[in-house]
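Summary for the steering committee. The consortium agreed at its last meeting that each partner would contribute one worked example illustrating the joint modelling workflow. Our contribution is presented below. We chose a case with several input lines so that the handling of multiple components could be demonstrated. No manual editing was applied between input and output; the record is shown as generated.
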Amino acid sequence: MSKYKIAILAGDGIGPEIMREGVKVLKVIEQRNDVEFELVEAPFGASAYFSHGSSFPEQTQALVDSADAVVKGPIGLSHEESKKIPVDQQPERGALLPLRKRLNTYANFRPVYLPKSLAHFSPLKPEVVGEGIDLIMVRELVGGLYFGHKEMGVDENGVRYVREQLEYDENQIKAILHEAFKLAGARKKVLHNIHKSNVLKSSVLWNEVLEEVAQAYPEVNVVHTLVDAAATALCLNPGQFDVMVMENMFGDILSDQGGGILGSLGLMPSACLGTDGKAYYEPSHGSAPDIAGKQMANPYSMIGSMAMMLEYSFGMQDEAKKVWQAMQSVFADGYSTADLSKPGSGVQMLSTEAFGDKVVEHL
Amino acid sequence: MSKYKIAILAGDGIGPEIMREGVKVLKVIEQRNDVEFELVEAPFGASAYFSHGSSFPEQTQALVDSADAVVKGPIGLSHEESKKIPVDQQPERGALLPLRKRLNTYANFRPVYLPKSLAHFSPLKPEVVGEGIDLIMVRELVGGLYFGHKEMGVDENGVRYVREQLEYDENQIKAILHEAFKLAGARKKVLHNIHKSNVLKSSVLWNEVLEEVAQAYPEVNVVHTLVDAAATALCLNPGQFDVMVMENMFGDILSDQGGGILGSLGLMPSACLGTDGKAYYEPSHGSAPDIAGKQMANPYSMIGSMAMMLEYSFGMQDEAKKVWQAMQSVFADGYSTADLSKPGSGVQMLSTEAFGDKVVEHL
Ligand SMILES: CC(C)[C@H](C(=O)O)[C@@H](O)C(=O)O
Ligand SMILES: CC(C)[C@H](C(=O)O)[C@@H](O)C(=O)O
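What follows is the complete predicted structure of the assembly.
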């Protein structure tokens, strides 16, 4: 029997309610497999700041160090509420980025997936969605502007200024590109390299390293696309993409656009993989404070993140697949969640909890 | 009679053929108004590099300095062709960015506009487009990562690295925000501030300055939106936006997404306004080398950029409006251009030249 210790960081806003549904699913997987999940909850995010004086308390740091995998709900507050926390303790800077750094999760996998049967959720026309949307964004997650040196000050004339650095070295670039090439090799053997080499020197180095790394993957065809052109193309013809690789900030923006073309960020799970088997899993969306506690959130992204954990951290591909299928079956049965259904469209709306229950039934 | 000297920089790829149609339109405006346009052509871009050894030759620099306004076609080559030009002479770094710096065009206005009658061009469903798309992105154009200090090198362990700075000072931020607030005041009195203050310190300063500038525009309601959330929202519900303001790189990506939701970058004109009445006008899209010379390009963005010149540089609001209406009438008559029509969709396709001719007829 395998035993895994899983850190459960529910986070802020809708975090706790979608985490609850994910945990339900894990329990089912545990019951029917020769596996034991030790689930340990810990405070993380703005709520942790208010209850424990730190958005990433020491006990949570110790837990993520000792856990076999971490699942994390969204964190963050509304623009107005954020102001009550000092800038460097705000949950993104005080908890999420330190978590990424701590586990060195350099590779963020964000599937943008909508089978043809669910194409009606997309804001795109059926003829644009075609056979469905099925691409995956591979985002560098511990470099670039996010972690570069930052300086804010006042110059000799009393003028406030800010400088922050977009930083990469060849090893960081190599690491993420190897992940992307491997994935492309296992899928359609096409890799879209998203960059801005006509302006950014970081893209120039990125592309130089890419030419070198590509030698090891002669079967993969590389297509170069400027980040701005990619933003156009994702709307006009997402079917042209399969695996897309890009630096941190570009990945932040384009993956949320990915959620847009699916119809909701609620359909965006993600895996953040580090070195030495370290990894954490999280929905790509925010904590939606406006609907928190109302049972309106879609737990798909959280449950999907758990499925990615089953696959990437525990090698349970089959169970992962079944979780995906169970979720899609719920939608295929004509149900929907609040983020996806427009009032009066005839589908039956499920609360957060009811969606989780239906997924469990299908499993 | 007013006399204006206009620098005509046709650029690369489809640049010359769409510029020709724009010039046709200017001739019509000239004929029926008490105005004289002195049109002076000059080399600019990759083609200038090959013919004159510089992508922004001195004669062109002198011309843009003395002109009353500049219109510029797209520049750039395919990823492969670009490699034949040294990195710093490539047309983006060697011509376009220096042009922006030279005229200090800090304010880039990019209308994302599709009247309801043309909603079928959008990849978005009719119910998402609703009453049409009508927003305008105000992009800071001479700061940020584009113009910050860049350093590429090899560290003491032989590892290649790159660092480039995202730089802003409060005066740059104030300048663009004043433009955005003024525009919002003249439109729906809502300003969407697009930022990433949960990660970037530059957004923290940006938002700090915004609170100060906002005091002068009490009638404008500010809505804060994270750049990633904006990328989602532009797909799901573009109607929520009217005026959006953002820094340079965010503006590059989101405005191309704007072209995506319209159905083509060929519908994206733009105005780049500087200090002391300096300005240049350009389509927001690239030079599309793959279709250059084939009369397949849509000159809407170029003619639209000329309309923006009539309005912003020459105060000819009425004529500008007529140009817009003429272009929309061509589409409303059931015609289309290659970028917009899908084969077999029944509309009649117009070549670049034929579109220009129809616009002239309508004028
Ligand atoms: C919350 C925020 C710091 C984070 C990011 O920018 O990476 C989020 O938007 C994401 O995409 O995971
Ligand atoms: C050509 C390129 C340098 C330019 C930019 O990035 O600003 C273009 O994409 C634009 O949006 O005007």
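The CA atoms of residues 139 and 230 of chain A lie 14 Å apart. Chain A touches chain B through 70 residues (CB under 8 Å).
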